[in-house]
Amino acid sequence: MPKVGMEAERRRSLIHATVDAIHERGYSDITMAQIAKRAGVSGGLVHHYFGSKDLLLAATMRYLLTELGRAIREGLAKAETPRECISAIIAGNFSHDQFRPAVIAAWLAFYVQSRTTDSNSRLLRIYAARLASNLTFNLRSFMPRDDARRIAEGTASMIDGVWIRQALSDGSTDRQAAIALVEDYVETQIAAHVARNSET
Amino acid sequence: MPKVGMEAERRRSLIHATVDAIHERGYSDITMAQIAKRAGVSGGLVHHYFGSKDLLLAATMRYLLTELGRAIREGLAKAETPRECISAIIAGNFSHDQFRPAVIAAWLAFYVQSRTTDSNSRLLRIYAARLASNLTFNLRSFMPRDDARRIAEGTASMIDGVWIRQALSDGSTDRQAAIALVEDYVETQIAAHVARNSET
Amino acid sequence: MPKVGMEAERRRSLIHATVDAIHERGYSDITMAQIAKRAGVSGGLVHHYFGSKDLLLAATMRYLLTELGRAIREGLAKAETPRECISAIIAGNFSHDQFRPAVIAAWLAFYVQSRTTDSNSRLLRIYAARLASNLTFNLRSFMPRDDARRIAEGTASMIDGVWIRQALSDGSTDRQAAIALVEDYVETQIAAHVARNSET
Amino acid sequence: MPKVGMEAERRRSLIHATVDAIHERGYSDITMAQIAKRAGVSGGLVHHYFGSKDLLLAATMRYLLTELGRAIREGLAKAETPRECISAIIAGNFSHDQFRPAVIAAWLAFYVQSRTTDSNSRLLRIYAARLASNLTFNLRSFMPRDDARRIAEGTASMIDGVWIRQALSDGSTDRQAAIALVEDYVETQIAAHVARNSET
DNA sequence: AATGAATGAGTTTTCATTCAT
DNA sequence: GATGAATGAAAACTCATTCAT
Asked: Cα–Cα distances in Å, from D81 out to A31, A190, D192?
């Protein structure tokens, strides 16, 4: 009798092995054999579960996107005010699971790589649009639509920027500092708007 | 025409071909044959000039760094006040030569890839340190050292963030919007500090 | 139902699946997984029953030979004159069970493939020798030994030729036309001999 | 400077190696490595020239068809009467170049294999149609259209049948016997028609 | 200097076979 | 007996690199 749930577990372990392999060797240097070895299975099994290297990579990217979405949603569930929602989104992007060297490395690899892979590109675009719309919606409580859009874009840019810079510095991550930098940006921008309004 | 100079021209044309190839195919999918074809030369010649694929890629990355450095230095030469220096640095990062799709794509590819390549990593670190120190120095005119360091890091993060987001959107680049976003960050932060100081 | 007979049924169904798989995918492209799926059993079971792919294929070939032999023997049982025997042999080769696209395809595949597989080659040779000897024996009633041998060879060649040509035309089979073509050959040859004899 | 004509020579030598490999190992067991070794080149070169195993096999089949067509055309060029044309077609099919064990083996392999490969199937069909039309046309001098068509089909069947039987017998080929068998069929059929006509 | 044919090591992929359940 | 997950050997294919011309 086959072990129920074995397949899901194997797939997850292979995806984790893929993330780790990208972290250690770099996206362009990983091989199926490395991933299989890292997951402690034979090379053939990876194909059995994912069909091809491309499909394994695509599945890994989807996994990362899903996990990020979940982290953000969890934070949003506890947020009550628009300001808290914004903080939840920011914190979600730097949550414990997300802001680890291996995950950061894999994220950026897919981010950059997706530029030349339509299906991956589409996934990222959908995620980015949702993030932008969510940020914009909550910023609308503090400023006009156009400004909200602009600051949302700035916030997203800074989140991505902090991530990419973290990838390069092989040192340990500092979630608090990362969050503080982005929060500071948002806070200062909101404050500027509030000040401007109270002047009039 | 003397053969001297011919070599430099060939090298440059191969480097440009490499940048374009990365843009079109992605870092992990480029081949020497593609690059050679794109540059209109034989495959063997690339080795003759660069020795190996790794060396060609390293040379391409050095070229990008040099060009970026040159763009910034040119702007800085005309800047007089610290504030103008900051703007020059920002503008340099989004100068006409730098903020093109192919260059952005290549930049990010090297950026991400350098994580697993020591020699490239070192180059990027040196550049990043110089940028940070330069920004910090000029921000010191407006705020204490620790704040200057923090805002310098924020500025660099936002520059990188704008870049990476541009790579994903296949559309045309908007230098003005990119500059405005980063300038807004710096300006608002400086204003906040000035306001705080004038309060006391 | 007793388990005895179950095994024979499973084996037969796997052999039929093999024949169908050869027909649909071609001898060089069939896999054990396909055959197992087609027979509605697990991949492991095929090995359990046949030991290996080669043995399954050998069993399939033996099955085809046996069925053909049976079809011919059944016809011969009803034949009384030498001429009727010849017709029975021809008709047996194009009997309903034999002259179906899937069976034809499998036959030819084994026919051609046996060239490089000693054990299969031996089986075919035995069958061919029996066919030749049978045809020759019955043709002896109408002509000298040497001519009988030659016309037997011609008859066998034409049977094989009609078969191979049928394999290529994906259309439906026309047993009557196939039989008529071969019968015409035999009839004309016999007639020529009879005419020659009556001349003298 | 590259050797002019080297490419054509290489391709031809690889195609010959393919034919020989099919003869020796059988269609379903040949590997690119075997073919390369037999041609005395590296494995990579085969891909360089043909792109893939499938394309190499397709090129080999086209080569065999072309050679057969050439052999027949050469014979036809010397034929003057319809009867001579028929003999030329038959002789062409068993010409020295065609009726060799390796070529026969390869021919049959492709013949059978083409059933599941559309592009190959199409090529064979075109050739078969041309052969049938050519035979029919020349037989029309001796018999009505319908009979001519039937005998043309019979002739083609016998040619194919002689070929397939030759493939199985690993012995040396006997071109004269093969030709005689088919000629006998045609001759007897024509004679029968002539006799029938003179009766009336 | 320049070419591009040729190599061969390395990678993905396939699949018969095994084996724990 | 029966399953199908897992293996690993063998195959196709890719491509940086070399080298004769």
From this structure: 68, 101, 19
